[in-house]
Automatic annotation (TrEMBL):
It is found in: Cytoplasm. One of its GO terms (biological process) is formaldehyde catabolic process. This is S-formylglutathione hydrolase. Keywords: Cytoplasm, Hydrolase, Serine esterase. NCBIfam families: fghA_ester_D. The lineage of its organism: Eukaryota, Metazoa, Ecdysozoa, Arthropoda, Hexapoda. InterPro entries: AB_hydrolase_fold, Esterase-like, S-formylglutathione_hydrol. Belongs to the esterase D family. It is an enzyme of class 3 (hydrolase). The keyword Hydrolase applies. Serine hydrolase involved in the detoxification of formaldehyde. Gene3D superfamilies: alpha/beta hydrolase. It catalyses: S-formylglutathione + H2O = formate + glutathione + H(+).
Amino acid sequence: MDQLSLVSSNKIFGGYQKVYSHQSSELKCKMNFSLYLPPQAEGGDVKLPVIFYLSGLTCSEQNFITKSGFQRYAADHGIIVVGPDTSPRGVKIPGDDESWDFGVAAGFYVDATKEPWSTNYRMASYVNKELYELIQQAFSNVVDPERIGIMGHSMGGHGALISTLRNPGLYKSVSAFAPICNPIQGPWGTKALTGYLGDDKSKWVEWDATELVKKYDGPPLTLLIDQGSIDQFYLDKQLLPENLVEACRSVGVPVILKLREGYDHSYYHIASYIGEHFDFHAKILKA
Ligand SMILES: N[C@@H](CCC(=O)N[C@@H](CSC=O)C(=O)NCC(=O)O)C(=O)O
């Protein structure tokens, strides 16, 4: 495991919350990611399911591991959890830290094609190829490569949806908290897609969950979407879950939209329902 450096390790709910760093070939910089090893991983004689968790705008690998309380449920179900960072770090592209919704901590889980972003901003390939393979190789004694799911929040919820829809079969289960569902129709999405892909909107649809689901042709999939009713970004029409639900219904892809009365966009919402999401993933990954 010499390509990984251990940054931290803390015991929690009988397992270990770890953070590693490594040199990413896709992003051309050093990256951190989190890894939760549940107690069932001890001894290394059982292969366990894995869930990738993709965070939202302004986050690093730290937000989910310190705020959601997911470790209790990962330990109960015996699930390994991997959490990448949200963009390349330290690559210093002019303008990369001028706004909180583009550039640093706002990689949108796409592969940029427009200069100057296209050299480093390759978060789709980083998550779905490089990190996906690294986890299987470095933790081959405990990872079951046939049982991998994905979830995320907001920008990361959309990342989870497009990672699944663009790579049929790669993730067996998918869920999202307050995801951006139709970025080509919302302000965050149009800013990011213009910046990373350019003005040609025919390229944007390849990275939009609502558009992708209409063409999905992979293994059967049920989407679980969790949305707080007073989430300001939902009310501001950044997220548009109803558009995704309508698209799913038009093509017969099962979707569950849970509208949670009184919850906002924060990790208080995620912490309240993360257990339900682990139950949902476990039912599929452990079937
Ligand atoms: N600009 C604000 C709000 C940023 C914010 O709400 N970020 C969310 C994700 S939004 C969509 O991707 C988040 O997860 N924040 C981290 C947290 O721990 O809550 C700001 O900069 O605070």
